[in-house]
Amino acid sequence: MTPKLRYLLGAFLLALPADQLTKLWVSANVPVESFADRITVVDGFFYITHARNPGAAFGLLVDWPWAWRITLFSVVAAIAVFVVLSFFRSLAPGDRFNASALGLIMGGALGNLIDRLTRGEVIDFLHFRLWGNRSWPDFNLADSFLVVGVAALMLELLASEAESRAKPGEAERNEGDA
Hints:
Layout: H1 3-29, E1 39-42, E2 46-53, H2 66-90, H3 96-119, E3 122-129, E4 135-139, H4 141-177
Helix pairs in contact: 1-3, 2-3, 3-4
């Protein structure tokens, strides 16, 4: 097994069970849609809640018929897995960082798809209060893994782009020293 495959599978096997186990715990221990029964993690800032979202991010598509939503979400998840595996194949055998990021993305995409297929909705439970009594919409670990994986890939892309732009300048300086 190549290092990149170990890291992809490791990140995936961390993300998917962590997402599903936390959702099971929230379902068993926190009443649905009862902000009064929330669990305070950091008072005034971070809470564990229990929200259900039959739509997409920020409640989008919630008015669509269930069959249309589940079809769309299944197709999007299948495309995400296909893209992840396509990117994975193009990675160097020792590329652990990008392989881990891809594993997180795949775990997050499949974690939310499992919810939609088994419950018809996604369980969200991470609640952050911002300034002035405003809150960020509740989300879950699958969402977090997706965001962290995509952000890691973007940072790696920016870093490699900056490195490739810096190399021609270094070559010119080295030629001038000769």
